[in-house]
Amino acid sequence: AINKLGAERIGHGVAAVQDSALLDYLAEHEIGIEACLTSNLLTNTVADLTQHPIHRFLAKGIIVCLNTDDPAVQGIELRHEYHKAAREAGLTTQQSHQCQRHALEMAFLSSTEKAALRKLVSIQQ
């Protein structure tokens, strides 16, 4: 399906860890994963966030960003997901920053808009 539909990013993607060839493909073709930690807990996709594959995705060189799946229903915002990633999934500050950079690369923006955001981010650091 990824090949036929030309996916550039995958929502959740938790089951991808069951196929090492798929993980390699995602990394090689820079197909990103939208990790939705709270949603994965609420739907029992993972029992707890120590079992979430986000670390494996990052270790394999896969582009990963943190997302809210349904913030209105779940009563959360993106900041909540970053706190959860640090506290419960054990993401380091460096990994959180990496996810933020990945989010910019995965954004549905033109290359010009992405370049402007990259410049803005580098000025603020």
Assign the CATH superfamily: Metal-dependent hydrolases
- Cα Rg: 15 Å
Low-pLDDT runs of 5+ residues are none
Shape: globular
Q: Provide the number of structural domains.
A: 1
* Structural class category: mainly alpha
Q: Major sheet, described briefly? A: 3 strands, parallel
Spatial strand order of the main sheet: 1-2-3
Helices and strands, in order, run as HEHEHHEHHHH
**Proportion in helices:** 40-55%
Beginning-to-end CA distance, first to last residue: 39 Å
Q: Quick check: average pLDDT?
A: 92
Please describe what this structure looks like.
This protein has 125 residues and is mainly alpha-helical. The chain has helices at residues 2-5, 20-28, 37-42, 54-59, 71-74, 78-87, 93-106, 111-124, and strands spanning 9-11, 32-35, 64-66. Strand 1, helix 2 and strand 2 (32-35) form a beta-alpha-beta unit.
Question: Which descriptors apply to this entry?
Answer:
125 residues; mainly alpha; TIM Barrel; three-stranded parallel beta sheet; 3 strands; 8% strand; globular
Short description:
With 125 residues, this protein is mainly alpha-helical.
